[in-house]
Amino acid sequence: MTAPAARRGRPRNEDADGRILEAARKLLFERGYDRFAMDEVAARAQVAKTTLYRRWPTKDHLLVALVARIQDEVPVADTGDLRRDLVVYLTAVATGLNGMRAVGRPGAPGDRSAGVVAELVAAAARHPDVGDAVRALFARRNALPLALLDRARERGELRTGCSSELVFDQLAGALYYRLLVTGEPIGAEYVEELVDQVLVGAAATPRPDPRPERT
Amino acid sequence: MTAPAARRGRPRNEDADGRILEAARKLLFERGYDRFAMDEVAARAQVAKTTLYRRWPTKDHLLVALVARIQDEVPVADTGDLRRDLVVYLTAVATGLNGMRAVGRPGAPGDRSAGVVAELVAAAARHPDVGDAVRALFARRNALPLALLDRARERGELRTGCSSELVFDQLAGALYYRLLVTGEPIGAEYVEELVDQVLVGAAATPRPDPRPERT
């Protein structure tokens, strides 16, 4: 049941939050990190600047909340087929990261910049409260793929001696390392190879080579 | 043979480079990224500012050269024992990354910031020429551990279907992911677990669980 009175007058906080985050998303993708301005977000979302700054004191705080919203739009399915579920999830992560590379920039071919993800990594390192927010975001989000791995271990598919965290570090780590450090591409084929490779290492019973020598 | 004349008068370029890089190293560790100033480097290295800026136009360019110098101080041994060589090398990498976390900051206990590494990642994303320099740096440096993995494959220890790049992405990726994203610690025990886990996945013949269930 909804109380009609709540729909009248000033919008409820969650309405304002939603409008702010959607305005922030559009502005970020139009402008990129450098030219992303809080005042413009407030104007587009039709909220008072004080409302915006009370909720998110800097653009980095707001962008962390936006990343949380974007991450939450990627489902983490548990179909019982661990390989497939990991490939689907990590392909979506890679697509999201690749999309963030070109945000607000002309996106020239061969552009290997990590884009806005690198800016948020630096903001997290610079400001302890932004860092706390980023780490909380990833802890919350990573709980979903970690649970996938835990359930596969309960089904006897993964070795008991190898932790889900270690397995997930190898998977997500490889994608972020390519994005942030080496600039190598992270495409769908790479994600499949990576998942196959990591699952050989994590399997409860020795598995045959998923990619035998190509002759 | 050295020509005595070359020792007199203005120092040769490599002397100036060395003095600049050593001054940069000291200043970075004293001050951190934010308060690292090029003019101060020139003064301490006793070189003209024009000399410094001609060689490295911004502090990010200079810091990439400094990271190259620091990386080159870490040897990559090839003793024929792949597991040991990887553990030694990656422990040194982790120690270096942990050291960079606290550079120029009070280093409070529980501080999980990625520090100056995150700043360089952001600079690489922001400025195409810094990005090119960082990627060239890692391509050059990573050639050494990649060669270790290639030689182990030639000895029949690693599967032919799994590329050295993919194996190394899992190793280095996990360390950088913890440093830059989740803020989890990267200690010596973690490095050993990681190497064991990745080598199970990469082994030519199915290997037993290196870490059976602890009861």
From TrEMBL, chains A, B:
<keyword id="KW-0238">DNA-binding</keyword>
<dbReference type="GO" id="GO:0000976">
    <property type="term" value="F:transcription cis-regulatory region binding"/>
</dbReference>
<dbReference type="InterPro" id="IPR050109">
    <property type="entry name" value="HTH-type_TetR-like_transc_reg"/>
</dbReference>
<dbReference type="Pfam" id="PF16859">
    <property type="entry name" value="TetR_C_11"/>
</dbReference>
<feature type="DNA-binding region" description="H-T-H motif">
    <location>
        <begin position="37"/>
        <end position="56"/>
    </location>
</feature>
<keyword id="KW-0804">Transcription</keyword>
<dbReference type="InterPro" id="IPR036271">
    <property type="entry name" value="Tet_transcr_reg_TetR-rel_C_sf"/>
</dbReference>
<dbReference type="Pfam" id="PF00440">
    <property type="entry name" value="TetR_N"/>
</dbReference>
<protein>
    <submittedName>
        <fullName>HTH-type transcriptional regulator YdeS</fullName>
    </submittedName>
</protein>
<keyword id="KW-0805">Transcription regulation</keyword>
<feature type="domain" description="HTH tetR-type">
    <location>
        <begin position="14"/>
        <end position="74"/>
    </location>
</feature>
<dbReference type="InterPro" id="IPR009057">
    <property type="entry name" value="Homeodomain-like_sf"/>
</dbReference>
<dbReference type="InterPro" id="IPR011075">
    <property type="entry name" value="TetR_C"/>
</dbReference>
<dbReference type="GO" id="GO:0003700">
    <property type="term" value="F:DNA-binding transcription factor activity"/>
</dbReference>
<dbReference type="InterPro" id="IPR001647">
    <property type="entry name" value="HTH_TetR"/>
</dbReference>
